[in-house]
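Example 293.
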Amino acid sequence: MYFIADLHTLTTLKDPAKLQGNLIEMVKDYLAAGLDPEKSIIYTQSSIPEIPELSLYLSMVQPLGELLLTPTYKDLVRKNPDRVSLGLVTYPVLMAADILAPQATLIPVGEDQVPNVETARGIARRFNERFGDTFTIPEMISEMVKVPGLDGEKMGKSEADNAIDINDPMEVIASRYRRFGVTDKGRVSKTDLGNPYECKSIYPVHELITTGEVDTRTIAGQCQRAEIGCADCKMLLIEQLRVLLEPFQERRRELAEKTDDVIEILHEGGKKARAIIVPTVELVRDRMGIRIY
Ligand code: SF4
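Predicted structure in complex with iron/sulfur cluster:
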């Protein structure tokens, strides 16, 4: 099940007009990257009104104090001190509803979201203890891939201008890596011995996408012996990215005019997801003594 957390985006919403368009473009990215709607359920959070309903029920077993200590919440407050809404505080509870509603067993999760999944696990345990076995306690997929941004920090569009847009022309991607990619700061000239593990945004991406690098450490060795300069190393990376991204971009271009198909996929995905989620929410209502007349 793959979904787009459009309700969550409201916590940092800047431009409502862009929300719908961005959502459709994101689904086109998913499809171009290989998601198959015949095999996967692709849906939006807002297609399932039972998700925010479940979030309300779950909020009754979640202590407020814990939410205020969540690292992701504290981080967001630090970055946006004048935009702290109740929705931001209860963000992890809505996320718990996303996870628990379909009785998810396994969650792939980025490093920064681990505390939020822990909150979901805690809510499930607490609810089960108080109201009887209702939720599966989900596990996390422990092998996490972190794609660094150009500055070496987590790649993201909202906080810093450090992202690579996979739909940008290759020349733009290449230029951004050439100009802004952060290498080993201790390596001032090409003859200096380098340390690839101090290289913030080039070598970590080689490790992710350059065929055989993790097994052979070829580029790492060349860097350490000063046999390769940073400019050439960036060029190698750009070539690897070209191999990876060009087929994706080709599929993405084919999808550009297929917005109606995407809307249909989301519509069907919403129906399938709802069929899975509604029985859980009915069970929760029943356990909590809520009957809809
Ligand atoms: Fe990074 Fe490559 Fe330069 Fe080494 S040679 S510091 S791995 S960019």
